[in-house]
């Protein structure tokens, strides 16, 4: 008498896990390129190029709440964004600049921002790349308040890039993972891109 259980099969007749084993065997020759979900992991150089685009975009968002935004009218338009995402970003930058002015009125605001973007994974599926990255930012006090604390935060982002007709990667969306009631002042919470 056997006490073991017979593996159940899925509607397609495969035993659960068999597809994963088959996929793993197919990926063995391409171990560094397979991600397990059908996507292709990007090279370090490609990931670095996309991270630079993301970093410039996130830096501009952080700058929008600082004296940098108050001194530069208007803020420079971010490069390498799809037209639709550029429109959404322009709206966000307007809201962030307004927020920065309100914070300045209340407690002096922020003098400058420093953003570092740390890539976690970058996966390509056709003409789309998903970059999971961590934004590490510091919002420094204005120069006339040297004893005020530096505000620091870290936010995980899922950034989506699409390939343009010319072959250039353009940022097409940003979904911050921390858009709750304690979201950093640099986040406009609402519908994700």
Q: What's the order of the H and E elements?
A: HEHHHEEEE
Euclidean distance between termini CA atoms: 58 Å
Overall, the morphology is elongated
CATH topology: Nuclear Transport Factor 2, Chain: A
CATH architectural arrangement: Roll
The fraction of residues in strands falls at 25-35%
Q: What top-tier CATH class fits best? A: Alpha Beta
What's the total helix number? 4
Question: Unreliable runs, pLDDT <50, ≥5 residues?
Answer: 1-35
Protein name: Nuclear transport factor 2 family protein
Organism: Streptomyces lasiicapitis
Structure keywords:
Nuclear transport factor 2 family protein, alpha+beta, 193 residues, 5-stranded antiparallel sheet, disordered N terminus, Nuclear Transport Factor 2, Chain: A, 26% strand
What does this structure look like?
By secondary structure, this protein is an alpha+beta fold. The chain has a single domain, classed as Nuclear Transport Factor 2, Chain: A, CATH 3.10.450. It has helices at residues 18-27, 44-63, 67-71, 83-107, and strands spanning 40-41, 112-125, 128-140, 151-163, 169-176. The protein has a five-stranded antiparallel sheet with strand order 1-2-3-4-5, with helices on one face. Strand 4 and strand 5 (169-176) form a beta hairpin. The longest helix has 25 residues, at 83-107. The N and C termini lie far apart (58 Å). This is Nuclear transport factor 2 family protein. It comes from Streptomyces lasiicapitis.
């Amino acid at each position: 008498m056997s006490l073991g259980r017979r593996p159940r099969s899925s509607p397609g007749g495969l035993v659960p896990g068999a597809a994963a084993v088959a996929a793993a065997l197919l990926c063995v020759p391409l171990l560094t390129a397979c991600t397990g979900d059908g996507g292709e992991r990007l090279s370090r150089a490609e990931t670095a190029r996309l991270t630079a685009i993301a970093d410039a975009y996130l830096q501009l968002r952080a700058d929008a709440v600082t004296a940098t935004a108050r001194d530069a009218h208007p803020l420079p338009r971010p490069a390498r964004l799809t037209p639709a995402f550029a429109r959404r970003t322009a709206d966000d930058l307007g809201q962030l600049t307004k927020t920065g002015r309100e914070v300045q009125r209340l407690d002096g605001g922020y003098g400058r921002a420093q953003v570092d973007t740390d890539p976690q994974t970058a996966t390509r599926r056709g003409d789309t790349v998903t970059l999971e990255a961590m934004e590490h930012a510091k919002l420094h006090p204005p120069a006339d308040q040297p004893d005020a604390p530096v505000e620091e935060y870290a936010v995980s982002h899922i950034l989506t890039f699409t390939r343009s007709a010319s072959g250039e990667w353009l940022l097409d969306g940003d979904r911050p993972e921390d858009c709750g009631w304690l979201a950093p002042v640099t986040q406009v919470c609402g519908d994700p891109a």
